[in-house]
Each structure stands twice: as structure tokens, then as C-alpha cells.
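Async update (no meeting this week)

Hi team, since we skipped the sync, here's where things stand on the single-chain job. The sequence we agreed to prioritize is pasted below, unchanged from the tracker. I ran it this morning and attached the output directly underneath so nobody has to dig for it. Comments welcome in thread, and please keep replies under the output.
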Amino acid sequence: MWPRTITVLALIVSAVSQKTLNLSGRGLKKEDFFLKLQTQITLAEVTNLILRDNQFDSFLDCSTNLTSLRTLDLSHNHLQRFFFLCREEYNLQVLNVSHNNLQYIDDHAFNDRIPKLKILDVSSNKLSIVNETMMEHFKILEYLSLANNPINDAIHENAFWNLKALRYLNLSNVSSSYFTAEVFKTLTNLSMLDLSSNPLKEIPTLPTNIEELDLSNTMITKLKNVMLPKLRELKLNNMSNLKELCLDDLKGLNSLETLLLTGSKNLVELKIVKYDEQLLPHLKQLRINDCGLKTLDQSLLVVINRSPVLSIENNPWHCDCQMMWVHVLFASKPLSQDIRCNTPERYRNKQIREVPENELKCERMSAVFYPVLWACILLLVVAFILATGFFLLRRPIGQWDIRRKNRDTVTYKNVDESSNDMVRILAVGETVDRNGE
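Output:
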């Protein structure tokens, strides 16, 4: 939505401007522009200056007269630095320095001389840090893109504190594994946030006014406690760690209209645990293309029935009785026409609507139940034999009687005699010996 808005805005600015100078794609160096071309052009009248796709390695405002400038496009150059130093204040509203070689932006570039800036694109550079002073002067900034910079976790928690008018923020592919709760705290007007292609494992604390959120290609495994009552569009495309999604976890998204799950190859289960008629009441589009789903739980019917657009093609569907309700849906709902069976083999690559309803059968329970039952019985028998042997071996040897045929019987018993009894036995024995003598 916002990229289209920016294009429209740029066209409007161009239409009402006195003059647009487009010098894109001419291989110009800064010397060509500042020393040669500007002697032929009255730059003071130019409002839109397009220097895209040239060979500028720096841009210094002191070398030219940009009093009327509103839009400056320096994208796709070789910029290592740029400056706004020679006027007290510029009317600049749109600045595009994307796809350059910027490693750091100091106070001579983003300063109080361009306070009217509304659109800033610094994507696809080499920025490694966003500190607390870099954006402090942009109090009416509405669009900011820092995408595709190797920032890692070096976004200061106060970096966006003054951007209270910001509505669009793109932090895609900045290699950040987490964002503190303070980072987005003051962005009360933020409506679109792109956090895609980052190694995030958890959803950070976000402003409640967000309407569009992109978490595609992150490491998130579960969507717990997401309370975004105004969210209309949620993108979860190419989620490699997302194996199951319980739609009950999205009960805090009462305004959600679009849910996209395309390309999440490891997503094998989509379900609703607790029936709730009010779950996702405004859902209009559900796309689960190119995932790992083999079947759809019938509990999803409550959500699917209220979704005008349902796209579930290119999943490895197992066409059996559990998919019969999807088969029936074809008669009443405009589903994707390319829902093809992957298994069983006899239905491979066949569209599910072409499979006769009476052939969508599940395997008999006995085919699985009885082998499992006999295996359990065998394990119990073996366990009983082992327990019996263990019990018998534990009996003390002294409690066994050893008897021999036609011989005196010798019995061994455990006897616990006191020392006094032993003295008494010895005394009797000596008396018997004397009488014998």
C-alpha cells in the first residue's frame, strides 16, 4: 500500500512542481554534474532532481543552489557520504539514497536543515548502526526504510523516539535477532511494519495501531499473545520454523482481513482447538499455498466459511475421508481449482474435485490397531518372564535346603546366637568328654 502511495505522491509533487530535472542512468560523476551541467541549468528553479543510477561517490549541497528542491533521488550510485550544510533550511520532502555504499550517516547529513522531510529511503547500504541522534530532527517523517543493511542488533532503543508521525517502517533484512519493547514505544501512528527476513524467534512488543505486519522468513515458531486489534494484514510467508499454526492464537486480531502463509514448507498442521464463532470475524483472504499440509482439520470450517478468498493449492494433500469436507466445499465455495492429491498413489496429481466422493476412504482401523495390540501383548509377556526370573534370583542362598539321597541330611540355616549361648554349649561339651574318659 505505502509504496503505491509514495509513487502517487511523487507524481503529484512532479505535477505541481515548476521543474523536474531527470538525469538518471547517464553514468555521471559528481564533477560532471557540479562543474559542467549546472552551468547550463538553473538549479534554483528545480524542485525534483533525479540523479538515479549514476556514479556519484559524494554529494555536497554547497556546490550548487537547491533553494526550491523538494525531491532528491541519489539512489543506485556509489555514495559514501552526502551533506546538507550551506543553507539554514531546505524544503526537501523526499530523499532517496538507497543502493549506495553508505556505512555511517553523521550529523552533517541528517540534521536540522531538512526538518520538512517526509519520505526517507536509506535501504540497501552498509549501515551497521542506527544511534539515538541519527533521526532526531525528522519530527514529521512518515516513511522510513532501513531495509537490507547489516545493522544486526545495533538499533538503539531510542533511535525512533522522535518519529511520532511515522506511518511506514521497513526493517526487512537488517539481521536483527530481537527488538526491545522500547524501540517501537513512541510510534503511536505506525500503521505498516516490515520485519521480514530477520532471525527473529519471538514477536517483539509492537504498537497497537499497526494495520499491516510482515513477519515472513523469520525464525518464529509460535504466535502467542499477539494483541493487535487494528491489524488488517498479516504475512507469514516462507516461515521455515513454523510447523503448526493454531488459529486460536490469533484471537487478539479481531480486524484481520488477510492472512498469508505462502511458501512455509514445514507447516504441516493448521487447526482450531476451541470452537469460537467470533474467531477472526473479518477474515476475507486466506492463502496457504506451497506449504506442507497433507490434510485440513474440519474445525477450520468456521473460519473458511466467512473467508471469500481461500487458496490452498500446491500442498502435498493426502486425499482420504478427512478431506471429504473440502471436496464438498467445491460445490458451494469458489476454491482454488488446483488442489491436487499427492497421496495415495492412485490419486497422485489428480484434482480432489475429480475424485469420486465415495472413494475418499480412510484405512481400516484394524490394519493398524491389531499389529500394535499384539506387539503390546508380546512386550508384557517378556516383561513378566524377566520379572519372575529377577524375583527368584533375589532369594538368599542360605534359605535353600540341600538334600542328598541315602545320606545324612544337612540343613543350613541362618542362626543368630548370642555369646552367652556359645559359652553354655562349650561347657556341656567339656563335661561329656570327661565322663567318657
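Quick observations from my side:
DSSP finds six helices and 19 strands in the chain.
The CA atoms of residues 416 and 422 lie 11 Å apart.
Reply here if anything looks off.
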